[in-house]
Structures
1.
Amino acid sequence: DLQSIRRPINMATNKVVTKKTLADDLAVKFGWTKKDAAEAVNYVFDEITAVVADGGEASINGFGKFERVSKKARTGLNPSTGEKITIPASESPKFKASKTFKDAVNK
């Protein structure tokens, strides 16, 4: 539950969260070394990336769902020349926020 999580010191003042700030906060909160905390943060993001890249879904309860979506080939315009071009089909990551996360943002 996002409402019951106590906000770490750094998170309360930073408007931008990075892997480094997450690792620094984990190190302080749990007494880990910064290296161990950075490895934990990298592990989480590496796992999410690998699962989604393989066509799976990473669902984090109370936060949201990451998945891969297919985009069909389509016709677009070259902005420089105005010429019609074909944009090839591609795969993209997609994130859908959970209701809990949406509610926390809309407080």
2.
Amino acid sequence: FGLVPSGLAGADIAALLDEARAIKDVRTTAILVMADPRGKDNAEASAALPAGIDLLPIQIGRRKAIADAAGRGKSIIEEAGRDPAASVEMRQLLEAIFQQDAGNLI
């Protein structure tokens, strides 16, 4: 299992995956982060994923509370009272990745 945050363009991701898959069959999953609460940008970003990449049905919104918590060396989950919605999104991500209740991971 590996989690790689990436700002790479679709072609760069596809090339990296081709290289990895030449060595070993790998399952690749993406998540939309810094998602906007409205508009078509999220759908366009999701549609731009290269073939062979699954998209988790979870989005992490563009939230200042996440950056602020990280600046204090904490997860937004540790500071759930500051932005409950951000904490919920992060728990959903953890549960999707580890396929279990996030309360058991923290």
3.
Amino acid sequence: GDPVREGQLAIEAYINGFRGFTFDQSGRLIIVMSKVDISDVGPQYQIIRIENGVIHIVSGHERGVSPDGTALVEARFENMSLVGSLHSGSLVLIESGGLRVVKGSLP
């Protein structure tokens, strides 16, 4: 399928490389996805939010490792999966290769 695009209708999107989902405090669907072909240039992981049936790309993440304390939207991951969300609105992501937990808020 074609890559997910900003402003695309969710019903027309092909979600490939699904890595988890949750709902934010406002009930909007948050999905983490990865590229299947890691030889592609650009972000290897994306966090998208679906609002009123429309896709919004919240952040893109390159492969790699970020130091502790890196903001969620700037972090790099080797094997990212979404675990859930906290009452504060932060997402909790886990890096299964290194058992690293990253949490933070989305814009």
4.
Amino acid sequence: AEFFSRFGDLAAAMSGSLAALFFGLLLIVVFWNTLLGAFNLLPIPPLDGSRVLFHFLRLPEEWQRVLDQYGFFILFAIILIPSPITTAIGRFLNWFLTFFFGIALA
């Protein structure tokens, strides 16, 4: 929620000129692209972050196949069922967005 409070006045900023509208829409597109990129780095099997994790853990290929096969259901459960893991993912994404947008908008 910390990140979103900083951009709460986006609608007011977009109500001005065409350039302001374009900048606001561009900011929304960059926000979602960054959010999806950070989410894709999570080490859950259907996402790309799991490939990095598998590389460093050097799991047997049979385990990797099983995790790949059932990883979607694990990811689906993590997203839909509130848990400490869901809270940790939210905090990671909030930190990621705050860090990178802080650099970009500084």
